[in-house]
Amino acid sequence: MEQELNIIEKNRLDKLKKLKENGIEPFSNGFKKKENIKDILSKYGNNDKEFFENNIIPAETAGRIIIVRSFGKASFFRLRDGSGEIQCYIQKSEVSAEDFELFNEYIDAGDICAVSGHLFRTKTNELTIKTEHISILTKSVLPLPEKWHGLKDIEARFRKRYVDLIANGEVREIFRKRAEAVNFIRSFLDSYGFLEVETPIMQSNPGGATARPFKTHHNALNLELYMRIAPELYLKRLVVGGFDRVYEIGRNFRNEGISLKHNPEFTMLEFYSAYSTYEDLMVFVETMLSELTNRIRGSFEIDYGSERLNFKPPFKRIKLIDSLYAVAGFKPEEIDSPSKVYTILRRRNTSGVSETDSLGELLTILFDETVEPKLIDPTFITEYPIESSPLARRNDKDGSVADRFELFIAGREIGNAFSELNDPFDQEERFKLQIDSKIKEGLPADMDEDYVEALKYGLPPTAGCGIGIDRIVMLLTNSHSIRDVVLFPLLKPLNR
């Protein structure tokens, strides 16, 4: 196969050389495109064959030649741009000798060309451009792949996404839907008076979540910095400053494992609303995601793998402790002490647990192990243990739990939200407890004293939410690996 590719590449390089010798620029610039292919199809796609026989409709566009079917003195070829594809026809008697020689001798599938002519319908009734003039804009030195299959080629698709996008229309459609979804979310938030902002990606103190950060160094300041793991603490500073509703759609970075649902670099939506509670945000989130699903998929019900997901509101709601009873099947007396829960987790060979962990921490881990994979339809899990919610407000009726929810769909976490802790003294104490935990895990563990000071100026009653954009797009496009919805996922180099 490699030898065959070398022959094809050599053949194309020979054509490249001859083009230059004949005074034809194979990597031109300055061509002005008059129409996108989609525009041509939308304008004239409904006209019948008789219409084109009675009317000369000019067409001029440009794109990549995908397929060529040659019949000697005539050929059909397909032209594709970023908006669509159209069939073209070229006949020796209908173009200049120079143009036909160019097409017949020098142009290959993969080349980017400009075509002008007029529209007609073929015997099979396909709308087609009858070529009157063709010029080459960019010569493709490497051939297009015929198809992608097998594990090795799946890996190659991610490494050479540009070729993947050329070869696979369904992949291009995934990223169109991703862009449409992000635009919808942005418009939805804007319509509710949220202000889009940007917060630092390099931070001296990575906060807002518990995760291992990437470290970098600022030479001029001789300062150790971290890529952000979450924008949360900066967004809440803005609420302190008087922006009552803010959001950010941006990249977060976590120096942790890679899996079907984890990429070290991922996109998050975080938004904060003053004078709101986490219960308000449950209604807001289910409205946003149900409308988003209906917009992108045309229905509240969508297929995801073998599951049928129903996004029609209201979403199911259940307290974390009750889910351990109702979903996982535990009896209250089986999980009412740290020692009992620890024993269950050890029997399950759960890593990362300690006999010194609190009941709340252990129950959260037990939930992750036994309940989360079973939550298929959109489900809000509420009232997390306070120990696993260091930035959330304590519940007024039960101080052992936080005013918090997480949203689960198809067995994975999609969003996390809570009524924000705005008591600076409580926050300072919880930061101190969190520092001890981070030190044990080998994570950066400095107190964010500036954030505590910001709270002392007064954070209004506020609720905030973070939603994983990549995971939402996975659901909307029926994709089962996060790498399918990230244009350039992080991959191990081939030479390592």
Task: Describe the secondary-structure layout.
Layout: H1 2-21, H2 37-44, H3 49-54, E1 58-70, E2 74-80, E3 85-91, H4 97-106, E4 112-121, E5 127-138, H5 150-159, H6 161-167, H7 169-191, E6 195-196, E7 202-203, E8 215-218, E9 223-227, H8 232-240, E10 245-253, E11 265-274, H9 278-297, E12 301-304, E13 307-310, E14 316-319, H10 320-326, H11 338-347, H12 359-370, E15 379-382, E16 404-409, E17 412-419, H13 424-441, H14 449-458, E18 462-468, H15 469-476
Parallel strand pairs: 3-5, 6-10, 14-15
Antiparallel strand pairs: 1-2, 1-4, 2-3, 4-5, 7-9, 8-9, 10-11, 11-18, 12-13, 15-16, 16-17, 17-18
Helix pairs in contact: 5-6, 7-9, 7-15, 8-14, 10-12, 11-12, 13-14
Biggest sheet overview: 8 strands, mixed
Number of domains: 2
Q: How far apart lie the N and C ends?
A: 24 Å
Strand order of the largest sheet: 6-10-11-18-17-16-15-14
Tell me which CATH architecture of the largest domain applies here: 2-Layer Sandwich
Shape: elongated
Description:
The chain has 496 residues and is an alpha+beta fold. The protein folds into two domains: 2-138, OB fold (Dihydrolipoamide Acetyltransferase, E2P), CATH 2.40.50.140; 165-327 and 371-484, BirA Bifunctional Protein, domain 2 (2-Layer Sandwich). Helix content is 36%, strand content 24%. It has 15 helices and 18 strands. The chain has helices spanning 2-21, 37-44, 49-54, 97-106, 150-159, 161-167, 169-191, 232-240, 278-297, 320-326, 338-347, 359-370, 424-441, 449-458, 469-476; strands at residues 58-70, 74-80, 85-91, 112-121, 127-138, 195-196, 202-203, 215-218, 223-227, 245-253, 265-274, 301-304, 307-310, 316-319, 379-382, 404-409, 412-419, 462-468. An eight-stranded mixed beta sheet has the order 6-10-11-18-17-16-15-14, with helices on both faces. Strands 1-2-3-5-4 form a five-stranded mixed β-barrel. A three-stranded antiparallel beta sheet has the order 7-9-8, with no helix packed on it. Helix 7 crosses helix 15, helix 8 (232-240) runs parallel beside helix 14 and helix 13 (424-441) runs antiparallel to helix 14 (449-458). The model has no long low-confidence stretch (mean pLDDT 94).
